[in-house]
Amino acid sequence: MSEDFQSWMGAVQAEVEVALGERLPAVSAIPARLHDAMRYAVLGGGKRVRPLLTFAAGELVDARPECRIAAALAVELIHAYSLIHDDLPCMDDDALRRGRPACHIEFDEATALLAGDALQSRAFELLATPGLADPQRQIEMLALLARASGSLGMAGGQAVDLASVGRPLNQPELELMHAMKTGALIRAAVLLGAASGETALSAAELLKLDHFSKRIGLLFQVVDDVLDCTASTATLGKTAGKDAAADKPTYVSLLGLEEARRYAEDLYQEACSALAGFGTRANRLIRLADFICHRPF
Amino acid sequence: MSEDFQSWMGAVQAEVEVALGERLPAVSAIPARLHDAMRYAVLGGGKRVRPLLTFAAGELVDARPECRIAAALAVELIHAYSLIHDDLPCMDDDALRRGRPACHIEFDEATALLAGDALQSRAFELLATPGLADPQRQIEMLALLARASGSLGMAGGQAVDLASVGRPLNQPELELMHAMKTGALIRAAVLLGAASGETALSAAELLKLDHFSKRIGLLFQVVDDVLDCTASTATLGKTAGKDAAADKPTYVSLLGLEEARRYAEDLYQEACSALAGFGTRANRLIRLADFICHRPF
User: Fold this and answer.
1) Which residue, of A249, A292, B15, B134, is most buried by count of CB atoms within 10 Å of its CB?
2) pLDDT tens, B227-253?
3) How large is the average pLDDT for residues B208-235?
4) Per 3-state DSSP, what percentage of chain B is helix, strand, and coil (rounded to 5)?
5) Which residues contact A51 (CB under 8 A, 6 or more apart)?
6) Which residues pair with A96 in a beta bridge?
7) Contacts (Cβ under 8 Å, ≥6 apart) of A58
8) How many Cβ pairs within 8 Å bridge chains A and B?
9) Comparing C-alpha atoms, which of A21, A62, A24, A19 is closest to residue A200?
10) What is the mean pLDDT of residues B76-94?
11) Minimal Cα distance from A124: which residue of B?
12) CA distance to partner chain B, nearest, from residue A217 (Å)
């Protein structure tokens, strides 16, 4: 990883962390325990991959800083809420997240449920801050985030995932599930970044960017499956080997470890190719794809 | 209840039911079980008080039908998601809703959790349909709904409610809790209706309408507490006497039954007075306040 890219990542992560802290309700506001739980689940952890993608896609369009940060935070809050709900006993029942007790362990189940619910509302509230972009485009951005989050996107992917436990899925079924569960929000992160600028991309450019976003969404999941099987719980900050233990279908169980790694490389190359026409403006996106593909955790 | 008002209510309820059915994903769409649960929780029940308020407030401003119905459905979907999550074992743990098994009983907890999550997303998606209103106003409507749903509104009210079990609240504390838990979304229903027209209300008119909406939000809860203590489970379609059994503070426990009834009458009169300047345009809103105050269930 080049020094320039690493310092860019660090700067974006720091900006996102500060902005999240500022735009989540203070613990001093009633109800204090709920706000404490929301802040606990969102702050102080996470690689912020989705905000990084929003910022990187923003480089294609001269992103307006206020719009870019609102889009990045909105996507991250949706992601954070989904993790809280995923970890609940009725879902994955996981006690560990980002190396700390999961929200429902640190607080309680009811508070965790409501914290997730309220984070989803807060995501839409942030993206509905007046004046972020041309109003019509801002409404399209809100619609895009809502679609990506709902029953045909992330929440729907969770439901498909639940239904798949103990049932053999073939590769197309597995890809549909992940395209919804992880892919939809990663795609939203990229497309919202590309919508946050003064200028708009052409339809042809948007198609290419969309292809990129779908490839890295899938890439993210394939690498996740590989790491779930090869990395330790301490490294991951969440329970390792969980999918195999739960008899959930993964790319590793479907393709084997070596073939899954090769598939990740192919997806990475394909993602890069999709951006060939953008020139140096796409450098950050390509570096992020590299990071997603080759991250150690 | 006059025949005219009754037939208007029936017509709005029917329009809302049809529109909900059309704008929720079909059960045939993947993931089928999730969509089935979403439709189960939303369709075929409920008095549709919030959509009725949106429609009635729309009479103040010559509401655009497309905007009015989208606002009404968005509020109702937020309400429906909150009921699903409320009934979960980690919250109120209630098996009965609208005279039928609660969503997590009819399906399962994980599906109910995700159905609630996806209904929230769908609410914002509906209200972000392009072209409903002047775009800037539409963004303000989205922000209003998000605020009303989040940690300083409905979800926050739930958290305050949870924290209050077994703890004596005084009347101001109880009113703050209900202003958030029930009041915020009722207020949103009214204000979104008033924002769905070709014309806008003046600042002075908005203040009066806002006062009305806050009074009926509280009225709704006071009557709910009275009914919880006087009506049967069969009549309510949900478990009666639950609040007293859970040692939750209610207006009846705080004021006694007779005083709570008198308080409801006062709130009703105050709500009507707030609308005095609107003339006949406010007739439906006043009839709805009457309905909320004197409903038998």
Assistant:
1) A292
2) 988 877 666 666 766 766 667 788 998
3) 90
4) 75, 0, 25
5) A12, A13, A16, A72, A73, A75, A76, A189
6) A101
7) A68, A193, A194, A196, A197
8) 171
9) A62
10) 97
11) B146
12) 19
Locate B87 and state its tokens. Answer: 């009934």
Of B187, B183, B196, nearest to B55 by C-alpha is B196
Rounded to whole angstroms, the Cα distance separating A244 from B87 reads 32
Please tell me if residue A116 touches chain B, with a CB cutoff of 8 Å.
Answer: yes
Query: What is the sign, positive or negative, of the torsion defined by CA atoms of A221, A223, A228, A232?
Result: negative
Reply yes or no on whether the pLDDT at A240 is more than 70: no
> Cβ–Cβ of B30/A160 closer than 8 Å?
yes
ipTM of the complex: 0.95
Domain boundaries, chain A: 3-294
Q: What is the pLDDT of residue B234?
A: 66
Measured distance CA(B97)–CA(B242) in Å, rounded = 13
Q: Token pair of A215, please? A: 């490839």
Per-residue model confidence (pLDDT) at position B1: 61
34-53 in chain B: CB under 8 A from chain A: 34-35, 38
* pLDDT tens figures, B15-56: 999 999 999 999 999 999 999 999 999 998 889 999 999 999
Contact A25 B151 (CB under 8 A): yes
Q: B92: nearest CA in chain A?
A: A110
Mean of pLDDT values over B249-270: 93
The position carrying tokens 């308020």 is B53
Nearest to B113 among A85, A110, A140 (CB): A85
Interchain CB contact of B164 with A (< 8 Å): no
The answer to whether the Cβ–Cβ distance between A152 and B29 falls below 8 Å is yes
Statement: residue A2 has pLDDT above 80? no
Residue B112 to chain A, least CA–CA distance (Å): 10
Q: 3-class DSSP state for residue A97?
A: strand
Q: How confident is the model at residue A199 (pLDDT cuts 50, 70, 90)?
A: confident
Given A30, A91, A130, which is nearest B139 (Cβ)?
A130
Residue B88's nearest CA partner among B68, B117, B55 is: B117
- Fold for the domain defined by B3-294: Farnesyl Diphosphate Synthase (1.10.600)
